Amino acid sequence: MKEEANLQILHAGYSLHRKPFHTTQIDGHENYLIRLQTLGKCRSRLNGRLELLEPGDLLLFAPGDPYELKIEAEPNSTGEPAVSSGDYHIFLSGEWIKAWWNRRPLPHRLKVPLSEGIVGTFRQIMLEQRRISNPTPEISEYYLKILCMEIERNLLEQPQPTYPTYLAHRLKNYIEENASTPFKLEDAAVHVGISVSRAVHLFKQAFGTSMIQYTLDVRLNMARERIIFSPLSLEHVAESSGFPSYNYFHKVFRKRFGMSPKQFRQTSRDNGA
């Protein structure tokens, strides 16, 4: 069988919106779209109505699917309205992606973890597509296929709608929505109406990691995207990503990524991110 050279990555990018934005495609895009919400909130038309998108919401749209995206002021963690939305997006065409898309029923929206496996793959595809001189375009195609496998795995791992799992996902959503501000485990537990010990147990059982570790992961991913794509000072990045101090942020960032926030920003710029 001939290698799928007919997989085309037409565009891969990252958008950070601080002003209202609205786009409508009544007849849908001409190509396939994979979009991951990473920061803030926005709305997309799903099942005939505009539904709220939050970090971790992955959109999957085939050619011809009606598409509408609306970014406007939404209440933040303090209840104040603010325009803030960040997302990775990839437009695709070709027989390979068509065959993959039609292999199983795909929802328009899928909740995925903001892990390095997912976010990092989006980023690598984008960086490969940005190379001015790219003698090996197959690399971005391999990354795209890895992304599709990650999506498949998340589809297979979607939890059964049991009550404990429902509570665990509410805790996870609370963390993702409030990670940019200081909060206690008690706050998350109270939000879903259970004790802290039960919240800690359910979360660990459902996701295989602690609530504290997951909060740190979300904050580090949030800070990393802001370092790369925003002009914020590093101190402001730390503060706006929920870290109590810059010194603590510097310590955990270096431990996770092997370099300081300043070095990471410079390396990202040198690589054309």
Automatic annotation (TrEMBL):
Q: Which taxonomic lineage is given here?
A: Bacteria, Bacillati, Bacillota, Bacilli, Bacillales
Q: What is this protein called?
A: Helix-turn-helix transcriptional regulator
Q: Which positions carry the signal peptide feature in this UniProt record?
A: none
A Pfam family for this UniProt protein?
HTH_18
Top-level taxonomic group: Bacteria
* Keyword annotations of the record: DNA-binding, Transcription, Transcription regulation
Membrane-spanning segments: none
Q: Which residues form the HTH araC/xylS-type domain?
A: 169-267
Stored PROSITE patterns: HTH_ARAC_FAMILY_2 (PS01124)
InterPro entries, per database record:
AraC-bd (IPR003313), Homeodomain-like_sf (IPR009057), HTH-like (IPR037923), HTH_AraC (IPR018060), Tscrpt_reg_AraC-type_HTH (IPR020449)
